[in-house]
Amino acid sequence: MKSKSKTIGHIAFWILVIVMFFYLVFPFYWTIVTSLKTESQLMMTPATFIPRDPVTHEAKASLINYKAVFSNATFLRGIKNSAIVSISVTLICLVVGAFVAFALGKLRFKGKTFSLYLILSMTMFPQISVLTGLYSVINRLHIDAIPAMILSYMLFTLPFTIWVMTSFFKGIPDSLLQAANVDGATNFQAFYMILLPLTVPAMVTTGLLAFIAAWNEYLFALTFTSIESSARTVPVAMALFSGTVARQEPFGEIMAASVVVTIPLLVLIYIFQKRLVEGLTAGAVKG
Amino acid sequence: MQMNSHRLQKKEQKLAMILLLPSFVILFLIAFYPLFTVFSTSLTDKKFASSRTVRFVGMDNYQKLLSMKVAELEPLLDASGKQMIDTTTQKPAYQDPIDILPREPYRYKAVSQFDFFGRHYVFAATDPEFIQSIGDTIVFTVLSVLLETILGMVIALVMIKNFPGRGGLRVAMLVPWAIPTAVSSRMWEWMFASTRVGVINVICQWFGWTNGQFPFLTAESTQVWAMIAIDVWKTTPFMALLLMAGLQTIPPGIYEAAKIDGCNAVQRFWKMTMPLVKDTLLVALVFRTLDALRVFDLFQIVFAQKRYSMASFAYYQLIDNKMMGYSSAASVVIFFIILLFIIIYTRISGGVANEK
User: Fold this and answer.
1) What is the least distance, in Å, from the CA of A175 to any CA of chain B?
2) Hey, of B27, B214, B244, B339, which one would you mutate to test binding to chain A, going by the most A CBs within 10 A of its CB?
3) Mean pLDDT: which of A8-22, B141-155, B163-177, B333-347 is highest?
4) What pLDDT, on the 0 to 100 scale, is given for residue B2?
5) Across the interface, do A103 and B198 touch by the CB < 8 Å criterion?
6) Which residues of chain A have a CB within 8 Å of the CB of B4?
7) B84 DSSP 8-state letter
8) How many whole angstroms from its chain centre is CA B220?
9) In angstroms, rounded to a whole number, what is the distance separating the alpha carbons of residues A241 and A128?
10) Is B83 helix (H, G, I), strand (E, B) or coil?
11) Half-sphere exposure of B121 (CA within 13 A, CB side)
């Protein structure tokens, strides 16, 4: 009797796992399938779960959408722009953020609690609320779209980086800093020669999260490139995607572009998944 | 010696200030100063990219954004004194709201009509689109956060069990989270296609729910639900991850003890698990709620100007209508709505912030 109910529980558990897996993965599977269909295969009703020939119904995939995407200059420029913006944001954020995190995590000074709360409050800042103001600032300083994006993305990446890195610096024993001081190193020397190398794991995690956030950002990118269309990033290019034929939305190409944009992120996630999970939870739970 | 430590402290203070400086310059430039200018611009009639002189208009923008009114509509009577029946809808006829709604200083537009204690009323606003965007965004936020909390909890409870393939599921879980919203919006837009080229219509037809032709994204009744479906898919994994982190801190021994004392699974969940993950849950709720309230990409990409979230409304006022002052006023309203939610959460949790 007992073992029977246990088996039922077991089966129910596995059904749950399979349902979850399908729920999480199916839309992306559907994207890949769609990207492998030609125009006429896309219009088949009902939609087929793998690409099939419209007449013979044999399985038949096509790479035509990928060819179109890789010869689309707007899209390729979008990838380049996104890479420039995201990498710059990540690097600046890590350098500037590490300074603050070291100060907040290891130094004694007046106004520490206040600074910490000020930065914490930033993580709740609605981006839309500063949009018009930010636009004025950028116009007044005559900043181009790409540097404007790099600067404005700090609004959400910097507070997060500081928050996670601070808790990491706090975890490093004080004695390390004191020993360096005794050996004649200044605080700043101790920071970049001894403590900084120790924080590399935290830097990798927060750097990745900042990179992904910057890669995915849409509101500022759309606004700041509204005049300078050559600076558009991938998400904006995706949203405004119009194929070579203006007849209807080229969903095959859009889905191929979606796959191309997502694959690098998935590879990064696969490599760093353990660290990412820790970083995400640490950042959010502490933040 | 004391002299020395005093000097050291001075040095630390100085170094700290130098280290903090770059970040605070950046944050001042992109957060605090812009926020201040948004407040001041919202009191003017400033136009975007225009050289026209800017006038101070006080609270005019806010008045135009937020004025609402409920007015009673008189029934229309025929010659014999009986209420007329609308020939097209077969419902009792009332006077046209346009005849009674004020036009000065801003024209009120009817949003909806309703009956209450046998009388007929019209609800009107000076900017129905903004009022509707607030309503839609709040409905969207409450429902999507509720659904993803429940689903996230189920997933987290499964994921903390040890089973073969857990690692694979964990990677699968990060897929929706990592896909840019701009991309997932287009993905789902295609899945929600209004004919059977869209997979959701195919599936719904299998179950006999639709005739395979349902326009999920253009039918007003399903628009917000479609947005919720996309958002729940995308952000449930994040919620599940946070809850997992919370669940992992619970020592397994206490469950064993409870089992021996005869607690069933449901009791164990409500009496032990929930109180122990309460703090994590609250933090996750705050994060997700604030994120959902400022939703932009989803609405802007899928609906453009067919239906607005609060953020996409402010965006279109700025970029398409060039109404910088008006858009700023909308942004300030959004800021305060979000602030209100933060205050409510801190009250409920007895001050999450204070514990830090």
Assistant:
1) 16
2) B27
3) B141-155
4) 52
5) no
6) none
7) P
8) 18
9) 24
10) strand
11) 11
Chain A contact probe: residue of B4, B5, B20, B321 with most A CBs at under 10 A: B20
pLDDT averaged over every residue in chain A? 87
Nearest by CB to residue A188, choosing from B15, B41, B163, is B15
State which residue of chain A sits closest to B41, comparing Cα positions. A133
Half-sphere exposure of B76 (CA within 13 A, CB side): 12
- The amino acid present at A94, given as its one-letter code, is L
Nearest to B12 among A31, A108, A219 (CB): A108
Q: Are B227 and B209 in contact (CB under 8 A)?
A: no
Q: Which residues of A touch B61 (CB under 8 A)?
A: none
State which H helix or E strand residue B324 sits in. Answer: helix B324-348
Tokens of B332: 């300030």
pLDDT of B216 > 80? The answer is yes
3-state SS string over chain A? Answer: CHHHHHHHHHHHHHHHHHHHHHHHHHHHHHHHHHHCCCHHHHCCCCCCCCCECCCCCCECCCCHHHHHHHCCHHHHHHHHHHHHHHHHHHHHHHHHHHHHHHHHHHCCCCCHHHHHHHHHHHCCCCHHHHHHHHHHHHHHCCCCHHHHHHHHHHHHHHHHHHHHHHHHHHHCCHHHHHHHHHCCCCHHHHHHHHHHHHCHHHHHHHHHHHHHHHHHCCHHHHHHCCCCHHHCCHHHHHHCCCCCCCCCCCHHHHHHHHHHHHHHHHHHHHHHHHHHHHHHHHHHHHC
- Confidence check: pLDDT of B232 > 80: yes
CB contact under 8 A, B36 and A97: no
Residue reference for tokens 């965007």: B133
The C-alpha of B53 sits at a distance from chain A's nearest C-alpha, in angstroms, of: 16
Look at residue B133 and tell me whether its pLDDT is greater than 50.
Answer: yes
Q: CA torsion, points A73, A79, A85, A86, in degrees to nearest 10?
A: 180
Of all residues in chain A, the one with the smallest CA distance to B179 is A262
Given a cut of 60, is residue B353 above it in pLDDT?
A: no
Q: Which residues of A touch B315 (CB under 8 A)?
A: 128, 131, 219, 222-223
Q: Is the pLDDT of residue A166 over 50?
A: yes
Residue B314 CB partners (closer than 8 Å, separation 6+): A128, A131, B327, B330, B331, B334
User: Lowest mean pLDDT: which of B86-90, B138-142, B146-150, B323-327?
Assistant: B86-90
Peptide bond into A46 cis (omega under 30): yes
| Alpha-carbon distance B33 to nearest alpha carbon in chain A (angstroms) | 8
- pLDDT at residue B131 above 80? yes
Answer whether residue B278 shows pLDDT above 90: no
pLDDT of residue B355: 43
Looking at CA atoms only, how far is residue A122 from chain B in angstroms? 8
Across A10-14, B111-115, B350-354, least confident range: B350-354
Nearest CA in chain A to B341: A124
Q: A202 to chain B, minimum CA–CA distance in Å?
A: 17
